């Protein structure tokens, strides 16, 4: 322990490993479990094996930048490298504030240029094909019994609901029956199911929202609720769900969102000729179809739970030219009975003025 400007620090005693341990123990009760697990995974998998035994004050920005640049060619994506950098920097910022280290060398480390592959929205034909394949059940080796039928039917409802509401994957699987107001045809998005199968608040403050649903979707959810109730009672002996989830495993437990992605979703998209399409594409499909149909961007933004209309316009800028064309057609329809000024008459009037 040393003294700096009359203030005690531990920079000559603690290692990076020590700092990370203290940091995780201090913040784990104030952040989501999924976030804490992400932090631990990033540090344990990448940072600590290389820098764990080092003293924080011996590290330099140049050294860390060189290491991160090499990770990119290792190969990790720029996005992953930036997550490593930001997580480590968050840890060291906290440590500086607590007086555990004198400076954060990550402050001098540049983020890597990230050019993420844009999420593709499905067109109407592709979405119909996806749902048709889902209804067929021939894309996945479901058990040929009631358990398999339950899983197959659930996938159909999951995909349909996501495409018709724009809800995120975690929001769909975190939906509870008491979050649906069947009287007003409204879904209250208040939870998200994480990889740990635990419910937590949605991604952002504006992600907590109300989504009005159409009659067909409402009827589908009513049917699924009745189907699930009969299935759980007859085949699982469950009459009341503790978490009251809309979507569950065959045994009534929360779904593993990662298992769903790697198994059913992957098999479904491949069978539909849409290999590589992520579940998030359903959210983009919902927004794109609404914008293309002339729904105001503000309404679309509210349904998606975006923090601002500007974000929605930025994400869906490729759809906006369609709206411009629709605006032109609307103006044309409003003025189709009006006669344009005569060019000859205007010219004659001008000549008269000159006289």
UniProtKB/TrEMBL annotation:
Q: What keywords appear on the UniProt entry?
A: DNA integration, DNA recombination, DNA-binding
Tyr recombinase domain sequence ranges: 117-331
UniProt GO molecular function: DNA binding
One GO term (biological process): DNA recombination
**Domain Core-binding (CB) stretches:** 14-96
**Nucleotidyltransferase: is it a keyword of this entry?**
no
Q: Does the keyword Glycosyltransferase apply?
A: no
Against PROSITE patterns, the record matches this protein to: CB, TYR_RECOMBINASE
List the Pfam families hit by this protein, alphabetically.
Phage_int_SAM_3, Phage_integrase
InterPro entries annotated for this entry?
CB, DNA_brk_join_enz, Integrase-like_cat_sf, Integrase_catalytic, Integrase_recombinase_N, Integrase_SAM-like_N, Tyrosine_recombinase_XerCD
What's this protein's family per the entry?
A: Belongs to the 'phage' integrase family.
What is the recorded name of this protein? Site-specific integrase
The record lists the organism as: Acidaminococcus fermentans
Q: What does UniProt list as this organism's lineage?
A: Bacteria, Bacillati, Bacillota, Negativicutes, Acidaminococcales
């Amino acid at each position: 322990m040393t003294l700096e400007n009359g203030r005690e620090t531990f920079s000559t005693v603690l290692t990076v490993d020590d700092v990370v341990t203290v940091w995780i123990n201090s913040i784990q009760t104030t952040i989501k479990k999924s976030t804490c697990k992400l932090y631990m995974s990033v540090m344990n998998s990448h940072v600590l094996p290389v820098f764990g035994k080092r003293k924080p004050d011996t590290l330099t920005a140049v050294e860390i930048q060189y290491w991160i640049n090499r990770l990119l060619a290792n190969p990790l994506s720029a996005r992953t490298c930036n997550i490593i950098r930001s997580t480590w920097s968050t840890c060291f910022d906290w440590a500086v504030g607590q007086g555990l280290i004198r400076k954060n060398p990550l402050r001098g480390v540049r983020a890597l240029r990230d050019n993420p592959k844009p999420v593709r929205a499905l067109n109407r034909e592709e979405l119909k094909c996806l749902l048709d394949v889902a209804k067929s059940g021939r894309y996945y080796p479901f058990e040929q019994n009631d358990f398999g039928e339950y899983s197959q039917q659930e996938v159909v409802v999951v995909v349909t609901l996501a495409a018709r509401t724009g809800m995120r994957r975690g929001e769909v699987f975190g939906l509870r029956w008491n979050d649906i107001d069947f009287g007003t045809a409204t879904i209250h998005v208040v939870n998200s199911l994480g990889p740990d199968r635990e419910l937590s608040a949605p991604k952002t403050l504006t992600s907590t929202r109300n989504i009005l649903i159409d009659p067909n979707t409402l009827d589908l959810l009513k049917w699924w609720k009745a189907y699930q109730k009969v299935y759980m009672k007859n085949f699982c002996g469950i009459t009341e769900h503790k978490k009251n989830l809309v979507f569950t495993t065959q045994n009534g437990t929360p779904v593993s969102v990662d298992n769903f992605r790697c198994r059913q979703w992957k098999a479904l998209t491949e069978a539909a000729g849409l290999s590589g399409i992520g579940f998030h594409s359903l959210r983009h499909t919902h927004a794109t179809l609404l914008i293309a149909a002339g729904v105001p961007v503000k309404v679309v933004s509210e349904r998606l739970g975006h923090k601002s209309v500007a974000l929605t316009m930025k994400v869906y800028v490729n759809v906006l030219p369609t709206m411009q064309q629709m605006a032109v057609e609307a103006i044309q329809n409003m003025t189709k009975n009006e006669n344009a000024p005569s060019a000859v008459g205007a010219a004659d009037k001008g000549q008269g003025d000159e006289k």
